[in-house]
Amino acid sequence: xxxxxxxxxxxxxxxxxxxxxxxxxxxxxxxxxxxxxxxxxxxxxxxxxxxxxxxxxxxxxxxxxxxxxxxxxxxxxxxxxxxxxxxxxxxxxxxxxxxxxxxxxxxxxxxxxxxxxxxxxxxxxxxxxxxxxxxxxxxxxxxx
Length: 144
What we know:
single chain; alpha+beta; Jelly Rolls; five-stranded antiparallel sheet; three-stranded antiparallel sheet; 8 strands
């Protein structure tokens, strides 16, 4: 076995505000993942008004409840100073700061070690999001 690095960039299409399951888009961008016996996948989102989350992927109420809860924590009606990019921009930055723009997931036997009910979400915090860019970096041991 040899230690190896792999890095690729992914563009996710525009999405509306909310939590969007992107697990399959991420794994589809990494066909070489199946060769890694052990390792880590690091996902980095290059944006400040969206974020990443690892969360429940089975019940469609969960992403809606998460969006509602975050909107209650960072409402558009708060008296923000940064308002030049629209009323949804500063709340989006707050939500991104709370959730973060990176995830690290273990790899075993060519697969992500996600729990039974876990999925990777792009959390779009703007009413009309833009194309979002991800950098996917894998480090680990793979078969020679």
